[in-house]
Design a protein that fits this description.
Blueprint (H helix, E strand, L loop, with lengths): L1 H41 L3 E4 L8 E2 L2 E2 L5 H4 L3 H18 L7 E7 H14 L4 E11 L10 H10 L2 H8 L2 E10 L1
Antiparallel strand pairs: 1-4, 2-3, 4-6, 5-6
Helix pairs in contact: 3-4
Length: 179
């Protein structure tokens, strides 16, 4: 009887240690990867004047969208919707004159989402697709795959599936917005 209790105690102890190790690995390794991915994703939409193409999500200090951390915990559709709402509101806050041209780089999924809103803005603003390029999706877009999905891929050895999602190519549209 004592051996059975020791075995059960040993099993429970091992189980608790595994949970503890999982938590440590998750918070030390996976969480920073997840958060850096979210930050890069918010930087994937670039709105800038021609003079300064390095301003991410803002023009002349006017913020187009700031994503809160709680938005990051949602799925990719929810993140795109949060970006869309902030992006359109941000566009309306920008100051346009005859010489001002804003360039924005958006991926295909985001463009499909904002196309209707951009058409409604057409009476106020001119929106044109300047170029369309195909580029490999950034590895940092791991945020589209939650860290739990990544962790499951590592455990289930589905790395091929993960690499296909991360390394796929995407269409990127470069659009100009002017008055």
């Amino acid at each position: 009887m004592k051996n059975v209790l020791r075995d059960i105690d040993g099993f429970i102890t091992l189980f608790l240690k595994l949970i503890f190790v999982y938590d440590i690995v998750y918070y030390v390794l996976m969480k920073p990867i997840e958060l850096s991915g979210y930050k890069r994703y918010s930087d994937a939409l670039i709105a800038s004047k021609e003079k300064d193409p390095k301003l991410h999500m803002s023009v002349n200090g006017i913020l187009l969208k700031s994503i809160r951390e709680k938005d990051f915990l949602k799925d990719d559709t929810a993140i795109l919707l949060a970006l869309k709402n902030g992006f359109i509101k941000g566009l309306l806050k920008l100051e346009f004159d005859k010489n001002t041209v804003y360039k924005t780089e958006v991926n295909e999924a985001f463009y499909r989402l904002i196309k209707k809103d951009l058409a409604e803005l057409h009476q106020y603003l001119q929106v044109e697709i300047v170029a369309e390029v195909r580029r490999r999706q950034m590895v940092a877009k791991l945020l589209l795959i939650s860290s739990s999905y990544l962790w499951n891929c590592l455990i289930d050895r589905r790395m091929k599936d993960l690499l296909l999602k991360v390394n796929r190519e995407e269409n990127v549209k470069i659009i100009e917005i002017r008055n």
